[in-house]
Amino acid sequence: MPNHNLVEFLSKVSFFSEVSKQSLENLIVNSSEESFRKNDTIIAKDTIGDSMYVIINGEVKVHDKEHQYDTLTEGECFGEYALIDNKKRSASVTAVERTKVLKIEREDFLNLMSADSGLAQGILAVMIKRHRELDTIQERLSTSKLELELASSKTNGLIQGAMDAIIMFDHNFRIVLTNPSANKLLENDDALQRNILYFFDEESAEVIKSLVNEAEKNTTKTINSFIPNMVKVIGSNETETLNEGTISKFGNETETFYTLILRNIEERIEAEDQINFLTKQTQYLKEEIKELTNDYGIVAEDVKMQNVLSLIKHVAPTNATVLINGETGTGKELVSRAIHEASDRKDMPLVRINCGAIPANLIESELFGHKKGAFTGATADRKGRFLLADKGTIFLDEIGEMPIDLQPKLLRVIQEGEFDPVGSSETIKVDVRIIAATHRDLLQHVADGKFREDLYYRLNVFPIEVPALRDRGKDVCLIADEMIKGFSKKMNKPLVDLSETDKSVLTSYHWPGNVRELQNLIERAIIVSKDGAIKLKDIIPDKDSDEELSQEQQDKIYTAKELLALEKENILKALKQSRWKISGKNGAAERLQLPATTLASKIKALGIERPV
After folding, report:
1. β-strand partners of 95
2. Residue with the larger pLDDT of the pair 136 and 261
3. Which residues lie below 8 Å from residue 558, measured CB to CB, with a gap of 6+?
């Protein structure tokens, strides 16, 4: 390049922008132009620099092996530090394409600086300008640093002060950061570099592992999602907690990190369980209130029932177990409620369960509760009725129907006040008063091997015998009168007075269904009553006609076909009661007192098939 063109060119180079053209002409006298082909090395790292270069045309790259720092093109300089020192170069410079440079050697440059004050002043002016620019940059960097420190402090405060556990880990599942809440959850203040999967149960570890593996396969996809399953954390002290959480991914092409945020939901689950418990308890109380609004108290003038009231008065203030005996429909439940209402537990629930109305395979769960997964269909934990009755009273109606294999568990509750829910090894303590009732002869059940003798005596601490309605004399008329008042008000019917004929009908009937039968008949009488009059005589069954029908049935002669039908029906009843179990204890063969092989033959001959 001609000298005058080269002077013009250098005057536009920032390093020489303050140098006069005369000084530039002096500079280029001893400078030389050099050309390099593509990939030629101009400066090698760790060599001693002795020259500065100005790119006239072409392009170079500044690099350290494969790592590239920068690229320079026409009008840019490199190697300036070689003008003032002779240290090793910190990087290499290689031509990216065919490149021409102006080479200025250090010795010539320093000699010219001494001889040409104009060159020295111009270079000094550029250096001062550069220094000022560096000061400005330094100032900005300092401000940025303070802002970064402030932002970092805020972020750190947010992480450290968070109530949720925050755990950061790398793609190898090694923990790189935890906050205090995470340390508490993990029960470990030194969790860094530990494998996070070791703090989860197997199922939760697999969920986290699959999410991370999926994210690792798709490097372009970020994740920031709610973890669908509950995460079970097992701390260093073996404490297990259930948590809900989110997981997110961040980083760059070379390094990836994951942030796991966990929230302990044990308290929430406990609160939900408590709400469910209270809801169920409320339902039981509502049922009790409903029953109370429909009953008529214990109306008693007869001496036998007065004795029952006296027994209630004596036993109610105690915690003694009570066994109420009496025919079906005599009001055993009313007696149990009267005992509860007169006791110190009256402000706590009275929980009822009919042991004969619940299938044998479900009654244990109903009484004692179960854990999730304890059996097919157990999709959630369930609190049993003993727990619902804690601090209150449980009324076990039809106790004689309780399966023999469940009776030891009931005996344990009575003796020790504790039980284990189905599918759980956790022992639960309860304070429950037990009132049982039956229409069965439990001693005969004991003799037949259907009821445990030790349980019988534990239940029979304080027996109460409720007399049948037919043995209570005029009480039947008093009870009927109370029922008429209640049903008349409920149905908005005129109040009816019992006539002497009605009273005679009531006292002469034998009442096989006791008070429950009386209630049903009175309700029917009020429904069909007209103009404030009822005719109990038309509603209450006639004893004589019943006896005639019974005698007619006794005198009936059955045909062979009818006998086969009766036998088939009888076998079906036995099969249903034994749940289609043919042989063995409590099987249909035992109930029918037939050999199992004989019964099997009869089932085949009669074409009896078990329903699907």
Report:
1. 60
2. 261
3. 566
